[in-house]
Write a structure and sequence with these properties.
The complex is a heterodimer of chains A (336) and B (456). With 336 residues, chain A is an all-alpha fold. In chain A, 73% of the residues lie in helices and 1% in strands. Chain A has one domain: ABC transporter involved in vitamin B12 uptake, BtuC. Chain A has 13 helices and two strands. Classes of the chains: A mainly alpha (336), B mainly alpha (456). Chain A binds chain B through residues 41-42, 44, 99, 102, 109-112, 114-116, 118-127, 129-130, 133-134, 246, 250, 253-254, 257, 261, 307, 309-310, 312-313, 316-317, 319-320, 323-325, 327, 336, and chain B through 57, 119, 183-184, 186-191, 193-195, 197-199, 201-202, 205-206, 208-209, 361, 365, 368-369, 372, 421, 423-424, 427-431, 433-435, 437-438, 441-442, 445.
Chain lengths: 336, 456
């Protein structure tokens, strides 16, 4: 019984939250890695592009709510996502046309493109703050919990409750669907294959008749889908605040590099590596050991490897270690 | 003279703008903008050395700035005796343990060939070392943080004049840069950027949460000053006389004696804060000029030529027998040390250390905008960039307000769009920075004052 309690404890406080957080990071990391692999620059506007997409989704959600359109027990934001993706896609194409295209055609070094993306970051940040303001916004509606901790206790008769938020389930389900479609697209369809070819060797791809304009447009559209969905999922689970989104760029970068930059599958797993290590290393295991160990051996302290303040620092330290020992990432990406 | 015309013109326009702020808004605002412009200029010079001279991209400026600020605290605050007696021994012991670990790792690295076993040994040394340090330091840290937590709760500093911290800050930042450089300089440019950005976040996390050292988010306030205090100035004889002399024409217009006294008092109060700011400006100006002379000398020296050669073609420079790795490390350390000086200056000016205020947007990306806008590789350009961008950063709110009022003049004051836009005026600075950066990158990629190298 104690063992079961301990297991549920870990599930409740580590596994489920880490899985949800990891999914959100994974989507962002695939976004970074796609832009890096195909357009060949580190996109410092990642976080702010995600917040832009989320903002549009929130505006649509508010509109739907005002006209009384809801999805019942599901959050209305899911209904807003397709519209948000459309607007987000056009925003990205506009940015590409007026900003990135010039440097791409001039074959500027990646550093210059990264600098330009900082300009885009500033502009996007300003647009988001001017339109929706810098404050914290919750736009979640519908059923909050799939299983409440108290219900779980009643059903199973255990001491520990397992609470599963519906947003966590939505996050995981949507991520699985999205990522499997994406991998199917990249690996099986002709367009996806040409994208990978372009990423692998630009000149060879051009020689074999691949249209770079088309590749770029499709990349930005996929990026828009990933940015919007990733952003909305994070916002549903936690809340929407432009500053947090900007900061999320850092663990997302860490995930992309840890997984091997330019490698979408690596980025996907990288997100979970970062999320799990952040939560595993900063969780206080006192209660867990109270269940597992006999009473005489109960620990005094919190048995916390690192205080929760160092959550971000954990992922960055992993990144530094990976960069030191395996600069191309865990799953071979491009050589840095 | 003629070839420097654009430099002189750019600087005169900049000074003219600041003087305009002085006459139209107030001299207090103008001087505080000027002081922060000077500090920004120091930061930009640091970043410019790395980016403009050597092509190294350092997005960790925030971390080095914070370390400089930490130096200001550790140098100037008086030591907290009770805290030292409560937990000082544990902290010192941990410090020795850290040194021991570093030496042990070095020993293993030197002594044994590269192999898997060596990696494992190093990992074991580090992990066991960290665990031992935690056991040693924890009681000490708890004891220190319990000493009068509302006021101190940390070890304090050395109690020296705060000016020394400018040099110590340089050493702190340089030391960190040495470690980062050893780890990360081999990476490709954009990954160096990400790595430094993330490492600077780690530095901030440590400064924020190691309360025994920095008081963390409780902030350290009331640091010593290198300049006189306003309150003292307002009671000093010579200062009041000075203010009276300066404003004699204005004061003579007032005939009533008591009214005149009131007016004089107000002038003294205003004057004292201007005077203090002028003192800071003087100090900062000295730093900027010294750094400018040094960096200019370096730029035109054989060493500067070598750095440019390395920047423009690493392989060729390498083939000519230049040690690229070593030079990169050197310039990374030098540039970061300058940023550290700026960080210490910033805390000196504010008189308080707030770890929570270090954010990458303000201390990393804004500095980079300054470097790019000003002109990378040109020290005068970098300083100008610091001035222009900081000036716009501060003045963009009034400008934005003016623009909003202009464009929505046809709307009523209560119209929701107008109200909303006026509320979001503070964010126009981001827009301005972003558009400015994009325009400069596109149409003047070398900055306002581009790099100009003439061989003497």
């Amino acid at each position: 019984m104690d063992f079961l309690n301990a297991l549920i404890l870990l599930l409740n406080y580590i596994f489920v939250p880490a899985l949800a957080y990891g999914s959100q990071l994974a989507i962002g990391a695939i976004f970074v890695t796609l832009i890096y692999g195909i357009l060949r620059f580190a996109n410092f506007a990642t976080g702010d592009m995600m917040s832009f997409g989320t903002m549009i989704a929130i505006l649509f959600t508010w509109h739907f709510q005002s006209i009384g359109l809801t999805l019942g027990f599901l959050p209305t934001a899911l209904l807003a996502i397709p519209f948000a993706i459309l607007i987000m896609g056009s925003y990205m194409l506009i940015i590409d046309k007026f900003v990135f295209k010039y440097y791409r055609l001039n074959k500027s070094p990646p550093v210059q493109l990264a600098m330009v993306s900082i300009g885009v970051m500033f502009v996007t940040q300003a647009v988001v703050r001017i339109i929706i303001g810098p404050s914290d916004r919750r736009f979640f509606d519908g059923e909050k919990f799939l299983i409440k901790a108290s219900e779980f206790k009643d059903i199973t008769g255990l001491n520990e409750g397992l609470a599963i938020k519906s947003t966590q389930v939505i996050t995981i389900v949507v991520t699985i669907i999205l990522v499997s479609i994406l991998f199917w697209f990249l690996n099986k369809t002709k367009t996806g294959k040409s994208m990978r070819a372009y990423s692998d060797n630009e000149d060879l791809a051009l020689l074999s008749g691949i249209d770079p304009k088309k590749i770029v447009i499709i990349t930005w559209m996929i990026a828009a889908i990933l940015a919007t969905i990733g952003g909305v999922l994070y916002g549903l689970d936690k809340s929407f605040k432009p500053f947090t989104y900007f900061n999320n760029m850092l663990p997302i970068f860490a995930a992309a590099i840890v997984g091997g930059i330019g490698n979408p599958f690596g980025a996907f797993l990288g997100g979970y590596v970062i999320a799990f290590s952040e939560i595993l290393l900063t969780y206080a295991y006192k209660k867990f050991f109270m269940y597992v160990l006999p009473e005489s051996m109960e620990p005094d302290g919190l048995i916390q490897l690192l205080s929760t303040d160092y959550k971000f620092a954990v992922s960055f330290s992993i990144l530094v270690i990976v960069l030191l020992y395996r600069p191309s990432g865990i799953f071979k990406g491009k050589i840095l | 003279m003629r070839k420097n015309l654009n430099v002189i013109a750019a600087y005169s326009i900049m000074m003219g703008l600041i003087i305009l702020v002085g006459t139209f808004q107030s001299w207090n605002i103008a001087l505080s903008i000027f002081n922060l412009c000077l500090i920004s200029a120091v930061m930009t010079m640091g970043a410019n050395i790395q980016w403009g001279y050597a092509g190294l991209i350092n997005f960790g400026i925030m971390g080095f700035t914070a370390l400089g600020g930490l130096a200001a605290v550790l140098i100037s605050v008086n030591p907290v005796q009770e805290a030292w007696s409560a937990g000082g021994i544990n902290i010192l012991l941990s410090l020795f343990l850290i040194i021991g670990i570093v030496l042990a790792v070095r020993f293993v690295l030197k002594r044994y060939q590269k192999s898997k076993i060596r990696n494992y040994i190093i990992a074991v040394i580090i992990i066991s070392g960290i665990i031992i340090i935690r056991f040693v330091s924890e009681p000490g840290i708890e004891a220190i943080e319990e000493v009068n937590p509302a006021k101190s709760g940390f070890l304090g500093g050395l109690g020296l004049p705060i000016i020394f911290s400018w040099i110590v800050g340089a050493f702190f930042a340089g030391g960190l840069a040495f470690v980062i450089g050893k780890v990360a300089l081999g990476l490709r440019a954009d990954y160096l950027a990400i790595a430094t950005l993330l490492i600077s976040e780690i530095v901030i996390a440590i400064i924020k949460h190691e309360d025994w050292l920095t008081r963390g988010v409780k902030n350290v306030v009331g640091l010593k000053r290198p300049a006189p205090y306003e309150v003292n100035l307002q009671q000093t004889e010579w200062f009041i006389n000075l203010v009276e002399k300066f404003n004699s024409s204005k004061l003579n217009l007032i005939t009533d004696l008591s009214e005149r006294q009131v007016a004089l008092n107000q002038l003294v109060i205003d004057g004292s804060s201007v005077f203090v700011k002028l003192c800071y400006s003087g100090l900062f100006l000295v730093v900027v000029i010294i750094l400018l002379i040094l960096t200019q000398k370096a730029l035109y020296s054989p060493w500067g030529r070598m750095m440019r050669a390395i920047r423009d073609n690493e392989e060729a420079a390498n083939a000519m027998g230049k040690n690229v790795v070593k030079q990169h490390l050197l310039i990374f350390v030098l540039g970061s040390a300058i940023v550290g000086v700026a960080g210490a200056m910033l805390v000196t000016q504010d008189g308080l250390f707030t770890p929570g205020s270090y954010r990458p947007l303000r201390y990393t990306f804004l500095i980079w905008v300054m470097v790019i806008v000003g002109g990378s590789g040109n020290n005068f350009g970098a300083i100008l960039g610091g001035f222009v961008v900081w000036f716009l950063w501060i003045e963009s709110a009034p400008i934005g307000l003016y623009l909003v009022n202009l464009t929505t003049a046809g709307l009523e004051d209560t119209h929701f769009l107008k109200v909303h836009l006026i509320e979001s005026v503070p964010y126009f600075r981001f827009l301005m920075m972003g558009i400015g950066l994009l325009l400069i990158m596109r149409y003047r990629p070398k900055g306002i004052l581009p790099e100009k190298i003439e061989i003497k």
